[in-house]
């Protein structure tokens, strides 16, 4: 797969980061993926994907001091989708639109 294309899980991770608004942390992304993506997401799979997206230039992150006492002061990874990442999401959206065009009757079960 070329480095500027997205796999399904990579796309869902980028979309989830975008959905988080002002609180784009890995733990929130994981919760969102599990709740709305209807799949179990291990920390390892999420962090491997975040690393891959970072290598592709689609995500950047920084460590931020934690304000949650239960975390024991461990820093949290604050995520951001880059301009290149946003463009990759747009390309994926456009491809999906093209492939889905005209399939509503079949996908909705009414032939």
Care to give the gist of this entry?
By secondary structure, the protein is mainly alpha-helical.
Would you give the CATH topology? Arc Repressor Mutant, subunit A
- How do the strands of the widest beta sheet line up side by side? 1-2
As for the number of domains, it is 1
Shape: globular
SSE string: HHHEEHH
Reported CATH architecture: Orthogonal Bundle
General description of the model:
The chain has 111 residues and is mainly alpha-helical. The protein has a single domain, classed as Arc Repressor Mutant, subunit A, CATH 1.10.10. 52% of the residues lie in helices and 11% in strands. It contains 5 helices and 2 strands. It has a two-stranded antiparallel sheet. The longest helix is centred in the C-terminal third of the chain and has 18 residues, at 83-100. The protein is globular.
Task: List strands and helices in order, with pairings.
Elements: H1 8-19, H2 26-36, H3 43-55, E1 59-64, E2 76-81, H4 83-100, H5 104-107
Antiparallel strand pairs: 1-2
Helix pairs in contact: 1-2
List its traits:
single chain; 111 residues; mainly alpha; Arc Repressor Mutant, subunit A; two-stranded antiparallel ribbon; 2 strands; 52% helix; globular
């Amino acid at each position: 797969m070329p480095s500027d294309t997205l796999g399904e899980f990579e796309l869902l991770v980028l979309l989830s980061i975008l959905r988080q608004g002002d609180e784009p942390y890995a733990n929130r992304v994981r919760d969102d993926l599990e709740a709305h993506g209807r799949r179990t997401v291990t920390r390892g799979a999420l962090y491997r994907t975040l690393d891959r997206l970072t290598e592709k230039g689609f995500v950047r992150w920084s460590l931020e001091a934690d304000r949650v006492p239960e975390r024991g002061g461990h820093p949290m990874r604050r995520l951001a989708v880059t301009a290149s990442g946003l463009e990759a999401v747009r390309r994926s959206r456009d491809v999906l639109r093209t492939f889905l065009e005209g399939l509503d009757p079949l996908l909705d079960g009414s032939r």
